[in-house]
């Protein structure tokens, strides 16, 4: 069995000090009726992050790829929580 130990506090510190949002374009979608008087609103768009160094960039890439594979977020069957990670070079 694969055992992985992560220092979440160290990861949080690394990301908070070495990652920034370079640009983003997000907008809400139309309200979707999911039945029984329940409605939800989602958003779509693009966010580009920049990293201070290669080590942080690799860490962020791995975390985003995990999010992409695991299909994070609520209401995933409705298409919410989708991440597509595409690394770029400056």
Order of helices and strands: HEEEEH
Number of strands: 4
The structure class reads alpha+beta
What does the main sheet amount to?
2 strands, antiparallel
Instruction: Round the mean pLDDT to the nearest integer and report it.
Output: 85
What's the structural domain tally? Answer: 1
Radius of gyration: 16 Å
Name the beta content range: 25-35%
The termini sit apart by 38 Å
Corresponding CATH architecture: 2-Layer Sandwich
Residues in helix, %? 25-40%
3D structure, described in words:
The chain is α+β, with helices and mostly antiparallel strands and 90 residues long. The chain has one domain (8-78): 2-Layer Sandwich (Alpha-Beta Plaits), CATH 3.30.70. It is 31% helix and 29% strand. The protein has two helices and four strands; from the N terminus they run αββββα. It has a two-stranded antiparallel ribbon. A two-stranded antiparallel sheet has the order 2-3. A hairpin with a 2-residue loop joins β2 (32-35) and β3. The radius of gyration is 16 Å and the shape is globular. The chain starts with 7 loop residues before the first helix and ends in a 20-residue tail after the last helix. The mean pLDDT is 85.
Key descriptive features of the protein:
Alpha-Beta Plaits, alpha+beta, 31% helix, 4 strands, single chain, 90 residues
Short description:
The protein has 90 residues and is an alpha+beta fold.
């Amino acid at each position: 069995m694969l055992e992985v130990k992560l220092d979440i506090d160290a990861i949080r510190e690394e990301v908070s000090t070495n990652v920034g949002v370079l640009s983003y374009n997000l907008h809400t979608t139309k309200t979707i009726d999911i039945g029984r008087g329940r409605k939800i609103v989602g958003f779509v768009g693009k966010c580009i992050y920049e990293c201070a160094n290669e080590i942080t960039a690799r860490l962020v890439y791995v975390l985003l790829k995990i999010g992409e594979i695991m299909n994070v977020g609520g209401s995933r069957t409705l298409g919410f929580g989708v991440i597509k990670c595409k690394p770029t070079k400056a």
